[in-house]
Structure prediction request, 153 residues.
Amino acid sequence: MLREKVEQLLGKALEERPSLFLIDFTIGSDNTIRVVLDGDQGVNLQDCMDVSRAIEHNLDREEEDFSLEVTSAGATSPLQLPRQFRKNVGRKLKVRTSDNEWEGTLTQANDDHITLEWKAREPKPVGKGKVTVQKKEVIAFSDIHQAKVILKF
Prediction:
């Protein structure tokens, strides 16, 4: 009952803010409601407050005892949805699959796969020394175990 009501309220709140999207939604056994959001232009404190109010002000505390937490996906949280990858095109990612791990700039993302590009030093085909080459890897979403944005300070 509580889950259905919260899902309806959350859906309505996100309809009013089309740049926001849901990453995770859970209700614990102790009625702890946890909502994790992301947005095409990021998520600010006001976004979290608005969604929190849209849920909390429409639930009756006399009926259900609950706690509510509305947060944004952290800067170092793993990317999960194609929409998150699209908003991070141009940023450096660390992507892990079952077979390999890559670090590179996300140059393309669609609903099926992502493209990473990076420069690597490799031995010259002829002679001594190394040459810098441009590398490119296309990775299907189904193969990605974890992908995170690499933050530079």
